[in-house]
Write a structure and sequence with these properties.
The protein has twelve helices and 21 strands. With 541 residues, it is an alpha+beta fold. It is globular and about 75 Å long.
Length: 541
């Protein structure tokens, strides 16, 4: 009864907000149609994204209609060309809120006018109802994160001259769009340098009814977005900027919210008041982690376009000041250098971060803490089995001592770095006893058993005899000569050296994972069961 009442009140609030916005112009989500493009692509044409239509709306504003395999349909994207043109331009990914669409920032938010004197290319993709998450709608799956973080960058790369350095990739949005911006930054801190959120819910578990209503507006069933907040708590945390706040270290963070009232007015906007309290908690969380950020709690302001237009302008002015003082400490971000140590918290079973690829075979959603990661090793928490491939941090052809310690025991073996200087490790984490054969109340307490167990991998150069060292040096010389154009073939030394190394291969219990991997398929085969996203540690809350 209580849940039904909350949903009914939330639906009424959204209808009221929709009516208020329509007074400023026609409601954009109801105008959007792609029927003029004809039937959606099928077969081979539906396997890759492509532009189905494009228009020039003003000297700077372009409108595109893209077919998206991630969504299985055609959606709209607006692009604002830089007000200050350059050979390559930084990009602002600007997201709309729930109930709006890709036209809203230019129709209602004055984005074109506010960016007139800025060097940024602004891309404004459609976000559907505004979940900014992977959502099942009937028999279809709407993968909005894939569309926004994979297909939109590919579209920009193919059509515009863009600076892809992380510091030149910025995320921003209003309301649910700000939630999406902050979440994508937490999911990919190695790809983005800044994130801004205007009047945005940054802790989904504190706003369950609103997220549920937005998912149902897109056609999904109730509680199908991240599941039940009690039984599927890990899914909610895996999609929570608050829970993944550790990943935001080193990024330029900017978020704001109004008070929910206007000066001299007695009425209050309860939605904006609630979001402001979430902003306070998010700021406190970042302070506790020692993460620098900018939080602006406004003394007035409602959940409307007047506030969001003001906040976009304020954020753009802040960006301009930081560009002017780019050489100061304020403009410096502590990015992870090649081989530098970092920590990453994620709910995904397959992820790439700073050149590392991690695959986890698991039966249920769980937290994954990829900790103390460097050329000397790493630790990984959770249950199931893992496969980790390093970046090219090591000497190709040299052997390294590998030690693996965890709940399944200790093991040591040697492995040879591949021709790209990478190592690959496979092993077991904690036993998957948390997955009962017959789920039910009697086994519900097994849901998190073992997820906090840690497996540690250590990497060290293996000692080599003089002959092996000479062979390694000769192979390195041959590679250098080939690059310089003085060598025409690999030569017998390289082949013989490889054979001689193989003769001395370790006979430890765990085989060398790199020997089971082909050069054409370095990632190997990955099969995941269960949900795609998983947990952040609930103890952090």
């Amino acid at each position: 009864m209580r849940r039904s009442l909350i949903i009914a009140m939330g639906a009424r609030a959204i209808r009221t907000l929709t009516a208020a916005r329509s007074q400023r112009g026609r409601y954009p989500a109801r105008d959007q149609t792609t029927s003029f493009l004809g039937p959606e692509p099928r077969g081979k044409d539906a396997r890759t994204w492509h532009i189905r239509d494009k228009r020039k709306l003003s000297p700077r504003l372009r409108e595109f209609f893209l077919y998206s395999p991630a969504l299985g349909r055609t959606v709209g994207v607006r692009v604002l060309l830089p007000g200050i043109p350059a050979e390559v331009s930084p990009v602002i990914h600007l997201f709309h809120g729930g109930g709006d669409d890709f036209r809203s920032w230019t129709d209602f938010g004055s984005a074109e006018e506010l960016t007139l004197d800025s060097p940024y290319l602004v891309v404004m993709p459609d976000g559907g109802a505004g979940t900014y998450s992977r959502l099942a709608v009937g028999s279809e799956v709407h993968d909005w994160p894939r569309f926004h973080t994979e297909e939109i960058p590919a579209f920009l790369k193919a059509n515009f001259s863009v600076d892809w350095a992380p510091g030149s990739q910025l995320l921003a949005g209003l309301s649910m769009g700000g939630y999406g911006a902050m979440k994508y930054a937490a999911w990919h801190p190695d790809r983005y340098g800044s994130a801004a959120a205007f009047s945005s819910p940054l802790d989904p578990l504190s706003t369950v009814p609103a997220f549920d209503i937005i998912a149902m507006r897109e056609g999904a069933r109730s509680l199908s977005l991240f599941g039940d907040p009690g039984q599927d708590r890990s899914e909610w945390l895996a999609n929570s900027p608050y829970a993944l706040a550790e990943n935001l270290r080193g990024l330029d963070l900017w978020f704001s919210a109004g008070s929910g009232s206007l000066e001299g007015a007695k009425d209050r906007d309860l939605l904006e008041t609630m979001i402001s309290s979430q902003g306070e908690r998010f700021s406190a969380r970042l302070n506790a982690l020692g993460i620098r950020h900018s939080w602006f709690p406004r003394t007035s302001g409602l959940h409307n376009w007047t506030s969001w237009e003001r906040e976009l302008g304020a954020w753009l002015k802040t960006l301009a000041k930081r560009r002017d003082y780019a050489s100061s400490d304020r403009g410096h971000t502590d990015r992870v250098a090649d081989g530098g140590e970092f920590t990453f918290l994620t709910g995904h079973a397959l992820f790439d971060i700073h050149g590392w690829r991690v695959e986890i075979s698991r039966r249920r959603a769980q937290v994954v803490r990829f900790d103390a990661v460097s050329a000397a090793g790493f630790s990984l928490s959770g249950t199931g089995s893992f496969r980790v491939r390093t970046p090219g941090l090591f000497d190709p052809g040299r052997r390294y001592d590998i030690s693996v310690s965890g709940p399944s025991g200790d093991n040591a073996y040697q492995q040879e770095a591949d021709k790209k200087g990478r190592l690959t490790f496979t092993g077991r984490l904690a036993a998957a006893m948390h997955d009962p054969i017959i789920p039910g109340k009697r086994t519900a307490h097994f849901a998190t058993l073992g997820q906090d167990e840690v497996t540690t991998v250590r990497i060290a150069s293996a000692p080599v005899d003089e002959a092996t060292d000479r062979r390694h040096g000769a192979a390195a010389f041959d590679r250098a000569a080939a690059v310089a154009g003085t060598a025409t073939v690999d030569g017998a030394t390289t082949v013989d050296g490889k054979a001689e190394v193989d003769e001395g291969r370790s006979t430890a219990d765990v085989p060398d994972p790199s020997q089971t991997e082909t050069a054409d398929d370095p990632a190997g085969v990955y099969i995941e069961s269960g949900r795609e996203s998983s947990a952040a540690d609930s103890s952090e809350r």
